[in-house]
Amino acid sequence: MFPLYADVPAYPLVFPLFYGAVAFFGLAMARHLRVLALAKPSSPFGAIPLRVGGLAVYVFGQAKLLKDLRAGLMHAAIFWGFVLLTIGTADIVTGGLIQAVVSWPAGGLLWAAVTALQNAVAVLVLAAIAYAFWRRLVTRPARLSLSRDALLILALIAGVVASELLAMAFEAARAGARPGAFVADGLAMGLRGLDRGFLDGAFAVCWWAHIVLVAAFLCYLPFSKHLHIATSLPNVYLRKLAPRGELPAMDLEREDATFGVRTIADLGWKDLLDAFTCTECGRCQEACPANATGKPLNPKAMVMGMRHMAVEAEAGLPLIPNSPLVRETYGLDDRLSPERLARPIVGDAISYEAVWDCVTCGACVEACPVLIEHVDKIVGLRRNLVLEDSRFPSELTGAFRSMEQAGNPWGLPKTARTDWTRGLPFDVPTVAELATQGRLDELDVLYWVGCAAAFDERNKKVARAVATCLHAAGLRFAILGQEESCTGDPARRMGNDYVYQILATGNIETLSRYGMERRTIVTACPHCFNAIGNEYPQLGGRFEIVHHAAFLRRLLADGRLRLAPERPAGDGPAANAAVTLHDSCYLARYNDVVAEPREVLGRVPGLELREMEKTGRQTFCCGAGGGRMWMEETRGTRINAERSRQALATGAGAVVTECPYCMTMLRDGLAAAEGGAAVASLDLAEVLAGRLREVPADRELPVL
Amino acid sequence: MRIVVLLKPVPDTTGQERLGPDLRVDRAAVPAVINPNDEYALEAALRLMEARGGDAAITLLTMGPPAAPETMRKGLAMGAHRGLLVTDPALGGACSLSTARVLAAALGSLEFDLVLAGVDTSDGRGGVVAAAIASLCGLPYLSYAGQVELTDTAVRVRRLSPRGYDLLEAPLPAMVVVTQTVGEPRYPSLKGIMAARSKEIVTRSLADLGLAADGVGGAAATTRVLESRPPASRAATRVVRGPAPEAAEAVVAFLAERRVI
What we know:
The structure holds two protein chains of two kinds. Chain A is elongated. Chain A is mainly alpha-helical. Helices cover 51% and strands 4% of the residues of chain A. In chain A, the strands form two sheets. Chain A has a four-stranded parallel β-sheet, with helices on both faces. In chain A, strands 6-5-7-8 form a four-stranded parallel β-sheet, sandwiched between helices. Chain B has one domain: HUPs (Rossmann fold), CATH 3.40.50. Chain B has seven helices and eleven strands. In chain B, helix 2 packs across helix 5 and helix 3 packs across helix 4. Chain B is α/β, with parallel strands linked by helices. The chains are: A mainly alpha, B alpha/beta. The interface between A and B is medium-sized, with 26 and 21 residues.
């Protein structure tokens, strides 16, 4: 009946074995889905071409995995080997259907090619698994946790592949190699001449071992961390397509709602799919600056903890749900009751302290090969702690109150907002002044100063440098002055969406009143940039905002901003020195502004840029994001000390920043570091402002 | 247990308070907040309520402009149950004594066991209103309380003193003035803010309280502001930077040089 498998003893038993395992796998997966069904709605649909493209890049291209080249190649070998070897298994469980179809054209040449490819990848997979064992047992990178589960899975894969290859080898020794099976043929050389009965028996054992292991794998998978084989494809397809820096919107008017995330039932089902997709690879943990400085936060442990909570909630549920009739007749209640999901996540999957350790830098999200969103979950937990329980580090009370009452986290009077303009050799008008004079139409660009540059002494100098550059470029610019308030970014990332929405709606109202939807806004603060550009649309504010790194690049490229040739020797110690650039998380990683600041520095004559090891989208946080600017850093060592160490390792004479928080953190970090006192911290605008060429008063500037 | 907390809206305390041309506090120029010391009094009331398992009703009593409910809502969001506002055009420029008379009359219209007040207000800084009310109403007056305990019939406080504290006890009803050592005021939760929207704030005029406008308002003020000047600007500050041990040494040397330590 199955001519292609005529020499396999008891071949038809494959069908009940394999399809039974498939059914078990399906039911166990469906039980996971029952937890997802109780979670909050998520709507990661639409944009199908983009999502399919994501599959190509992140699943089939293994894009994120290959960032760690050795481990990435290992995984790619196993992944592609798995895909190709599945063809053979699929042939077995379809009674030879695939072989029959593929053999048809070109007189079986194609099937021979497939066999040859399978032989080759089998060796590759076995080599990769040997390396994987070596890593897990001998070199043991810190990001991997030693688990029986992982070793068992590796052994299963090795067994599946090795048994298939060996079966082929015994077959070749017995009856001659099939076309294309070159590795099996090679192995068979040492086996030929052995007793025919032994070869028959060995073939049968290996052949059946392969299919039994495949069935075992299917039955084990739903309970293993290795579930990602089944879930990563949908998880990548359903990935977050909104800007990474846009936190989920929040409706604060719904009186019956739970605000934020308390239990796993408050998570979206996509969040739970994230949890079921985590493979404990630990790339997030390795990238996390809080974890790297000895703090309790471990993004991997949080996601796995959420998954354990979900799995615990299904404990005792039957694999096959009873029908409503059976339930009613026998009084059985085997539904997944919401009470089972009612345990708080904080204190279970993640500790209270760890929730507040997060700098929301997004390094974990960037590192994750299956595109899990850790930061949105942590902010969800913070929202619940703040909005429902008022539970947060006590230092934040002052920051919250200051933002709400004074409109800035420093708690300084708004009358002081324009103090930084004092003594500048040119006028910095406010938009309100231009409006009263009827000159609003003349405005080229609105400079969004931000609270840090308005109130922090060091960053006031940055504001002056930005204004100097704008003025030197001949731009007519203005500020909002006292009408500007905090964008709400720190409040939002600390979980206080209430204060965020008050501030954001106020700013949107002010900007709209002056018609700023039709103008360009420039800011030197990546947090303001991200909030206004990526988050204000949720509240109806659509503005074109440019970060000063990109804006200055454009001014230089257009020739509006001209720099003096190399400084004469002896003009200060920092003249023509080598610098290093500290990428801001919210600029580089969240908004992909990486090339622009480098191009700006590249245009400064005589300036050498020395890159740090962690740079661009892989940058390492300064320690002040996510509202950490306003919290004490009491656990572990200081993040800014670690980043300062990395900066000093380049031997550069100055660290260039592009964010006021980074400026504060790195200045303090360098001052406290050995050998750091001589290293300056400068904003990108300050680098330029110190090098501007005098513009002749009568120079005609090109139109922007 | 019925607790009344005296609460005054004051101009935002971030250093923008200004006097108007009439030398009265310009309340329109700066947004109003709860007087910080009153927040401690409210916090003390909330903790007393919680210690009794929630068995207490907290009323906020305010004398202020018609916009005062906006500020009072923040107190209701922290957990107070209702508010009573005395507002009247004639009250502008009222002195401490007038204020005390009005609030005493308002208290007379309420049933209460305990009145809590902050040490003083950030705009007036008189610090006498609570004492005057206690005197006008004939209430026991317990000042500078660092800790407050309540039984069904009495209140006991630790009154802070230079040597430590005195233990005072008085029968209810009584007036207690608390210090900031009672505990940091809580930050209202969103549920609290939403609940506060539907809590009741009753408004009374002078006539409602049976008081004559010429006896208590600005017209009858017993004190008057004659002149005001901005304070001299602060001398230049010196910021010490560097690794903590060296920075600490520099600070110590600076202070020692000036014989501060």
